[in-house]
Amino acid sequence: MRKMPIEIVTPERKVYENAVDLIVARGADGDLGIMAGHVPVVTTLKVSHLRLKNDGQEITFAVSGGFLEVKPEGVSVLAEAAEMPEEIDVARANRAKERAEKRLSSKGESLDERRAELALQRAVNRISLATRR
């Protein structure tokens, strides 16, 4: 099977670079499965898990939005944040989840509801990846 080069970068660092068999990402219009030879495409990424399959192994990242671009020479992921399960501080993610839930339940005048919803999605995404077995 041909491999597809992928590079995952955030504003802070290069998170991952390798060639893989399959990339599964949640884009603006739903899930994408990308293999070598995929047609060029650019999409926004939802807060979700980004899965890479390579030689029977799976590597999963918690991604907090961004962009994915498929070109003939490879895939570039420009993510707001991307973490592997072992990098996630579950206690911190749980605190972020609790803060977001509290903001959403207060429904005050100064509430930025969309921002709180996104914070909740990010926290739940990180917790689900870090705690899955």
From TrEMBL:
InterPro entries given in the database record: ATP_F1_dsu/esu_C_sf, ATP_synth_F1_dsu/esu, ATP_synth_F1_dsu/esu_N, ATP_synth_F1_esu_C, ATPsynth_dsu/esu_N
Domain ATP synthase F1 complex delta/epsilon subunit N-terminal: 5-82
Compartment annotation: Cell membrane
Main location: membrane
Keywords of the record: ATP synthesis, Cell membrane, CF(1), Hydrogen ion transport, Ion transport, Membrane, Transport
Subunit structure: F-type ATPases have 2 components, CF(1) - the catalytic core - and CF(0) - the membrane proton channel. CF(1) has five subunits: alpha(3), beta(3), gamma(1), delta(1), epsilon(1). CF(0) has three main subunits: a, b and c.
Record's protein name: ATP synthase epsilon chain
Organism: Tumebacillus flagellatus
